[in-house]
């Protein structure tokens, strides 16, 4: 009888007991708003900002309501205005072009390679079309960041990194988020720390962070933030920077602080699961494993593989057969958006010229979460199921 996987691809680990206790304490005293503090108190949100800045090696960190809000705030903080063009990945999730479009700016899509990273040759060609790149490290895949920064520095392009999928990752020993001027992170449930919704901005730039803090809705209480630029910097920006409220509250910060402390161990656990699935899939007829470069220290909280040049019907059959055995695969090549999967040609608010090379790759991408509620044995079973069903369809079954 065929093996069946009975786990859930959306079930996360429980919040740590320490986080639950801290959250209960916040609820008991009732000071959930980050600026509602007792005399002499440093709030959970401010403490989290200090700890997140230390973890990433950044001078400043700002805790906000979501990763999407972090991206839009980062774009505003560096001066993006309505009508400006902003480069970004064609392979990403909708909140990335959505953040650009929310400002009235225009996304300019850059292609994807078979490594699922931004196409540096296409970036080089399009580098004269915009002054800002919102770089999405989509699904945790890091491009050659040294080469990318060389292109952007030569063209005068400001880089903002979307690190929603790369918290804890690094390129050549440099933490993800530390190459560009700013970086954005998400703590939505399916990311590397879980507060339901939430996010961060980091930077070393005084004025950019001062603008971001004002934008986040600090009013004139910015001195209560955890990592604060000098007062004279706020004096320069506070009267011409709008309040677009999107603060993180103390309740979510309380939940996140213990998770940040155990994150390195969590990353190692994800990678152990990733490697089991990767090895189980390697050598499957018709299936391409995405090879990771030596310089990349990744966090394998999801895994992708390629069915390049397969017909739509054959890919749909693989998905159907795997689902019948309990394995949920998401497809970025479908004709219409499904769930969180969509393509650059789905975002009609951001029209683009056709990109045939990118279309070929997007059509072949299958994607799967690897929650830490899976055991290594679960991961081996999942790989056997995918391998068997892909092989059967490839051979005409």
Description:
This protein has 397 residues and is α/β, with parallel strands linked by helices. It has two domains: 245 residues, Aspartate Aminotransferase, domain 2, CATH 3.40.640; 131 residues, Aspartate Aminotransferase, domain 1, CATH 3.90.1150.10. Helices cover 38% and strands 14% of the residues. A seven-stranded mixed beta sheet has the order 1-9-8-5-4-2-3, sandwiched between helices. The chain has a four-stranded antiparallel beta sheet with strand order 10-12-14-13. Helix 4 links the parallel strand 2 and strand 3. Helix 3 packs across helix 4. It starts with 16 loop residues before the first helix and ends with a helix.
Write the layout of secondary structure elements.
Layout (H helix, E strand, L loop, with lengths): L16 H13 L14 H13 L3 E5 L2 H11 L7 E5 L5 H8 L3 E5 L9 H7 L5 E5 L8 H11 L2 E5 L7 E2 L2 E2 L6 E5 L12 E5 L2 H10 L15 H7 L12 H12 L1 H19 L6 E2 L6 E2 L4 E5 L5 H13 L5 E2 L24 H8 L1 E5 L6 H19 L3
Helix pairs in contact: 1-9, 2-9, 3-4, 3-7, 7-8, 10-13, 11-13
Give a brief rundown of this model.
With 397 residues, the protein is of the alpha/beta class.
Attribute tags:
38% helix, Aspartate Aminotransferase, domain 2, alpha/beta, 397 residues, single chain, globular, Aspartate Aminotransferase, domain 1, four-stranded antiparallel sheet, seven-stranded mixed sheet
Number of strands: 14
What spatial order of strands do you see in the largest sheet?
1-9-8-5-4-2-3
The largest β sheet comes out as:
7 strands, mixed
CATH superfamily of the largest domain: Type I PLP-dependent aspartate aminotransferase-like (Major domain)
Mean pLDDT: 96
Would you give the CATH topology of the largest domain?
Answer: Aspartate Aminotransferase, domain 2
Helix content: 25-40%
* Share of residues in strands: 5-15%
């Amino acid at each position: 009888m065929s093996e069946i996987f009975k786990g859930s691809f959306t079930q996360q680990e429980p919040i740590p007991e320490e986080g639950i206790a801290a959250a209960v304490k916040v609820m008991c005293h009732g000071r959930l708003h980050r600026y509602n503090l007792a005399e002499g108190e440093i709030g959970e949100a401010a403490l989290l900002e200090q700890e997140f800045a230390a973890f990433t090696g950044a001078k400043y960190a700002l805790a906000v309501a979501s990763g999407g809000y972090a991206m839009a705030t980062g774009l505003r903080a560096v001066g993006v205005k309505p009508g400006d063009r902003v480069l970004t990945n064609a392979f990403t999730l909708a909140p990335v072009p959505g953040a650009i479009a929310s400002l009235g700016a225009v996304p300019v899509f850059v292609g994807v390679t078979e490594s699922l990273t931004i196409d540096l040759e296409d970036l080089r060609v399009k580098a004269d079309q915009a002054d800002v790149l919102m770089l999405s490290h989509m699904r945790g895949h890091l491009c050659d960041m040294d080469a990318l920064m060389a292109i952007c520095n030569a063209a005068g392009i400001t880089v903002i990194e979307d690190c929603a999928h790369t918290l804890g990752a690094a390129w050549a020993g440099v933490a993800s988020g530390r190459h560009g001027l700013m970086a954005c992170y998400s703590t939505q449930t399916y990311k590397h720390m879980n507060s339901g919704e939430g996010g961060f901005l980091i930077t070393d730039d005084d004025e950019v962070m001062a603008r971001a803090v004002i934008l986040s809705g600090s009013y004139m209480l910015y001195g209560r933030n955890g990592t604060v630029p000098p007062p004279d910097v706020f004096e320069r920006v506070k009267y011409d920077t709008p309040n677009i409220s999107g603060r993180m509250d103390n309740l979510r910060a309380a939940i996140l602080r213990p998770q940040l402390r155990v994150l390195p161990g969590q990353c190692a656990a994800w990678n152990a699961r990733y490697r089991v699935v990767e090895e189980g899939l390697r050598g499957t007829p018709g299936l391409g494993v995405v090879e990771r470069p030596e310089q990349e220290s990744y966090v394998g909280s999801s895994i992708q593989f390629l069915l390049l040049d397969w017909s739509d019907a054959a890919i749909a059959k693989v998905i159907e057969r795997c689902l019948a055995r309990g394995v949920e695969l998401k497809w970025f090549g479908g004709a219409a958006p499904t769930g969180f999967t969509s393509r650059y040609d789905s975002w009609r608010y951001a029209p683009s010229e056709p990109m045939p090379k990118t279309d070929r790759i997007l059509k072949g991408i299958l994607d799967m979460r690897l929650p830490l509620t899976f055991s290594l044995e679960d991961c081996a079973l999942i790989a056997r199921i995918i391998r068997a069903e892909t092989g059967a369809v490839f051979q005409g079954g």
